[in-house]
Amino acid sequence: VLHVIDHPAVIPMTDEQYGKILELKGFLNAYQTLRRSEGQGKKELTGPDCAKGYFISQLAYYRERESILCAFLNAKMEVLACEQVSQGTVDCSCIFPREIVKRVIQLDATGILLAHNHPGNSLAPSRADLAMTQLLCSILDPLGVKLLDHIIIGGDQAISMSEIRMLPEGRRKVSQKEYDSFTFRYASEGMGEGDGHDEGR
Fold first, then answer.
1. Strands (DSSP E) along 12-170, which ranges?
2. How far from 149 is each of 72, 133, 201, CA to CA, in Å?
3. Which residues have CB under 8 Å from 170's CB, separation 6+?
4. What are the tens digits of pLDDT across the range 12-27?
5. Res 171: pLDDT
6. DSSP secondary structure, 131-156, as one string
7. What gap in Å lies between CA 61 and CA 28, rounded to an integer?
8. Which residue of 95, 97, 128, 191 pairs with 197 in a disulfide if CB–CB is 3.0 to 4.6 A?
9. Where would I find the H helices in 141-200?
């Protein structure tokens, strides 16, 4: 049963049935998060270990396709909201920086944490992962909002790009096209030659 939930494509199903599987995944992830935060107030993400545990619980059942989450934080590092900002296809994801900026302003957030899963269970950041991180840093920095970390989930393990010193330093000029959307293909197997990732475009 867990294999079917993780990889629904292994059995024939209609679009409606596939949608219900995705709803079930969302329920299971929400349940895990509620159990972890039971009896607590707003969740504080005060460091890489805390952030890794939080996002592992959020993405534990997303093993078929890439899912990108964004946690919006206040100045006390408390989570104001955690939302899915992209659900990839079999080999492609698209993120909309404009929508992230909109939510930052709506929530009066001072920082964000980005996280996504690698369906292939690799923990190595890809070139596309680095490009996406750089893009968001460059867009948020003029607003006084920090991208504090980018967590990559592989199975039940995670790495922090901040912890391994791979967060971008400084910002670069961003084109209007990049501001609207950032699309990349992925293989989720790290930065080696022929890893299947295209640069953001």
1. 67-73, 79-87, 92-95, 111-117, 146-154, 157-160
2. 12, 9, 22
3. none
4. 888 888 888 888 877 7
5. 67
6. HHHHHHHHHHGGGT-EEEEEEEEETT
7. 8
8. 128
9. 176-180
